[in-house]
Amino acid sequence: MLRTLIFGVTGYTGIELIRILSDHPKVRIVGGSSRTWVNQKASEVFTYISRKKDFALVELERLLDKPEADVAFLALPHGDSAIAARRLLDAGIRVIDLSADFRLKDLSTYESWYGPHKDPELLGRAVYGLPEIHREHIRKADLVANPGCYPTTVILGIAPVLNTPEVDTSCPVVDSKSGISGAGRGAKLNSSFCEAGEGFKPYGVTGHRHIPEMEQELSFLAGRTVTVRFTPHLIPVSRGMVSTIYLKTETGFDAEMLRQIYEQFYKDEPFVRILPKGVFPDTARVRGSNQAHISVEIDNRTNHAIIMVAIDNLVKGASGAAVQNMNIMFDLEETSALTGLPLFP
């Protein structure tokens, strides 16, 4: 059995990792870090965990002192993962980081968006963990930077047409909506029920931290600079997100041509679904699953492609992708523990 540790196990992404890994036939969770529930059993905090699947919750430092495992998931705040990653790697443990600490390759770019990096030498060692794009590099990696949720939708949505001459991908316009769990489990006024429960608002306008991540990966894939015009919004649902992407096209480029490009690009991907014509992504149809649903249309009146992508931000946008990366890294069946259907309604 593959021994796993989860750092930050009581946050939303840590809890989601427990849910997914508990169904994995080749994995056992052997420990987790927590600041609030130190020295308790996981089953005492989460009553749905069976005794057979139980593990201890301990302080982060204590877990780092004796990290007896094969792989560690870091579900820690931005800035906290770098130090933990170094110590785990030095102990011979492979690391999957769900924070932003290793997603950006350029140190100056990282520091302009997040502040000083605590271990910049590791930036070049990390592999960006989007399996549909970097599967072979993930397979060999000992440090994987799990993608952000918004970048997952944007990169999956644009990658198939980056080198299609009839589609202008130099400056995609992206309008995204996310559920409140994307703000994390910690108490925050702007994500409390009374503040967000019946609201719908943009945020991070012109300056969301996921922008450089999107631009880095899209520019790498295109072999040229791609600049993203991105506006995220908070919607009053607990989980799920949809990104709608607008790309200028040449006259005569039709929806069937576009659909064929996407179907061919993702034909072997187990978690990407290209929806039938006239069917549009819905957060309710991906809730709790590792699926990404994509719909494509052409607005002939304005000559624009409209690409729509929906995921569960806590699964394909975080913990599900992390488990998918783990499966690839350890040569396990890539879909193990990830084939559950969405929860509906």
Short description:
The protein has helices at residues 12-21, 42-45, 60-65, 81-90, 107-114, 131-140, 149-158, 193-196, 211-222, 255-265, 315-329; strands spanning 2-7, 27-33, 40-41, 56-58, 71-74, 94-97, 127-128, 143-145, 167-178, 201-202, 229-234, 241-249, 272-274, 292-299, 304-311.
What's the helix and strand layout?
Layout: E1 2-7, H1 12-21, E2 27-33, E3 40-41, H2 42-45, E4 56-58, H3 60-65, E5 71-74, H4 81-90, E6 94-97, H5 107-114, E7 127-128, H6 131-140, E8 143-145, H7 149-158, E9 167-178, H8 193-196, E10 201-202, H9 211-222, E11 229-234, E12 241-249, H10 255-265, E13 272-274, E14 292-299, E15 304-311, H11 315-329
Parallel strand pairs: 1-2, 1-5, 2-4, 5-6, 6-8, 7-8, 9-11, 13-14
Antiparallel strand pairs: 3-4, 9-12, 10-11, 12-15, 14-15
Helix pairs in contact: 1-11, 6-11, 7-9
Structure description:
By secondary structure, the chain is α/β, with parallel strands linked by helices. The protein has 2 domains: 2-125, NAD(P)-binding Rossmann-like Domain (Rossmann fold, 3-Layer(aba) Sandwich), CATH 3.40.50.720; 150-313, 2-Layer Sandwich (Dihydrodipicolinate Reductase, domain 2), CATH 3.30.360. The chain is built from 11 helices and 15 strands. It has an 8-stranded mixed beta sheet, sandwiched between helices. Strands 10-11-9-12-15-14-13 form a 7-stranded mixed beta sheet.
Index terms:
345 residues, alpha/beta, 2 domains, seven-stranded mixed β-sheet, 29% helix, 23% strand
